[in-house]
């Protein structure tokens, strides 16, 4: 018998509102539609009424999980328009904060995925280890969510020798914890039964629909802005881009776990080779010169794009934000087809969606 089953806009498996309409035969999904737009906050319009420093505060609140990425991408665009060169030490501090944020984002998502499939013991274990990352971010920035580490021309807070040693010590503990989590997720039968062969997005479909970030890399698409178009200090670091070709929810779990290991490696390299010198060019309020620039940044969920247009005044003339979830959300109906209603929440969550980012 045919049914139309609504998922959302409020649903226990979804942290943010989205509406998916499932067309089913029995409990098998034959087709699906996704509707967004429940979170619109007018961020881009508000940015035109603010100067560069005020905009950093604003765009950090586009997303609570990748707030540093938004501030960093915006700052890179303004710095390019104004011809500003960020001190090397400031770039390293930005990278360290960004990779800690990636670790936090991936640990948070893995925990939520385990919760959705009903494996609450592993969910609590992963989120307990996530606290180690939160402690490092709090020690580095003073904040657990919006870190306020970026200013135009560099970073706002430096890393002392004492802090560097503390982070390195915490990374040792986190590495052991990550290896344990990888072992549990890869070998656990419950995880395998609920994720292998579920929510398949083929490489061809991922390319055709423009999937990006870990979601694309879990479908065999080898793409990462940090490597393909290095920005900031990423050209200084040696790291791999994990790619998995099974194209299912299991692959999305594995890719994010492997990326965590690479992020730890990048942070270690940055701490070991932290350049001397200043971290910024001062905290003066800059005018945004007449011109425009488009910056690309590899946020935890994928490529984040900021286009900033200046007219020579203190305020932005235009800020256009293109977020990873905007590219990945259209793949959801494709992944839902042929699966059961019971797996719908997990499949939607498997793109690591940020619908607040998407709606801005």
What labels describe this entry?
single chain, about 350 residues, alpha+beta, 3-stranded antiparallel β-sheet, 15 helices, about 50% helix, about 15% strand, metal-binding, iron, Nickel-dependent hydrogenase large subunit
Distance between the termini: 39 Å
Residue share in helix: 40-55%
Per DSSP E runs of 2 or more residues, the count of β-strands stands at 8
Order of helices and strands: EEEHHHHHEEHHHHHHEEEHHHH
Q: Biggest sheet, open or closed, and with what strands and sense? A: 3 strands, antiparallel
- Spans of at least 5 consecutive residues whose pLDDT stays below 50 are none
Tell me the radius of gyration. 20 Å
Description:
- The chain has 360 residues and is of the alpha+beta class.
- The chain has 15 helices and 8 strands.
- The strands form 3 sheets. A 3-stranded antiparallel β-sheet has the order 1-2-3.
- A hairpin with a 2-residue loop joins strand 2 and strand 3.
- Helix 2 runs antiparallel to helix 3 and helix 3 runs antiparallel to helix 4.
- The protein is globular and about 65 Å long.
- The protein starts with a strand and ends with a helix.
- The mean pLDDT is 91.
How would you briefly describe this protein structure?
The chain has 360 residues and is of the alpha+beta class. The chain is built from 15 helices and eight strands. The strands form three sheets. The protein has a three-stranded antiparallel beta sheet with strand order 1-2-3. Strands 6-7-8 form a three-stranded antiparallel beta sheet. The chain has a two-stranded antiparallel ribbon with strand order 4-5.
């Amino acid at each position: 018998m045919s049914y139309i089953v609504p998922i959302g806009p409020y649903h226990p498996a979804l942290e943010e509102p989205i509406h998916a309409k499932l067309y089913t035969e029995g409990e098998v999904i034959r087709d699906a539609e996704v509707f967004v737009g429940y979170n619109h906050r007018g961020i881009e319009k508000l940015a035109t009424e603010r100067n560069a420093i005020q905009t950093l505060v604003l765009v950090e609140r586009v997303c609570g999980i990748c707030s540093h990425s938004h501030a960093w991408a915006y700052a890179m665009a303004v710095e390019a328009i104004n011809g500003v060169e960020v001190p090397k030490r400031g770039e390293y501090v930005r990278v360290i904060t960004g990779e800690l944020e990636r670790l936090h984002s991936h640990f948070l998502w893995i925990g939520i995925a385990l919760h959705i499939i009903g494996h609450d013991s592993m969910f609590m274990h992963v989120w307990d280890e996530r606290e180690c990352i939160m402690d490092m971010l709090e020690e580095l920035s003073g904040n657990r969510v919006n870190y306020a580490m970026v200013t135009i021309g560099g970073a706002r807070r430096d890393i002392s020798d004492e802090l560097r040693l503390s982070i390195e010590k915490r990374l040792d503990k986190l590495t052991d914890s990550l290896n344990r989590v990888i072992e549990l997720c890869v070998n656990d039968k419950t995880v395998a039964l609920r994720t292998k062969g579920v929510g398949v997005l083929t490489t061809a479909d991922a390319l055709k629909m423009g999937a990006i970030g870990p979601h694309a890399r879990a479908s065999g698409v080898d793409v990462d802005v940090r490597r393909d178009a290095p920005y900031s200090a990423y050209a200084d670091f040696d790291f791999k881009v994990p790619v998995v070709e099974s194209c299912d929810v299991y692959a999305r779990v594995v890719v994010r776990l492997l990326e965590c290991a690479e992020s730890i490696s990048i942070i270690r390299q940055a701490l070991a080779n932290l350049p001397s010198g200043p971290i910024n060019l001062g905290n003066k309020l800059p005018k945004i010169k007449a011109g425009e620039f488009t910056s690309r940044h590899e946020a935890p969920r994928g490529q984040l794009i900021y286009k900033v247009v200046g007219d020579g005044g203190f305020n932005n003339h235009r800020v256009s934000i293109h977020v990873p979830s905007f590219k990945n959300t259209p793949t959801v109906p494709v992944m839902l087809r042929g699966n059961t209603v019971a797996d719908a929440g997990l499949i939607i969550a498997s793109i690591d969606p940020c619908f607040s980012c998407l709606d801005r």
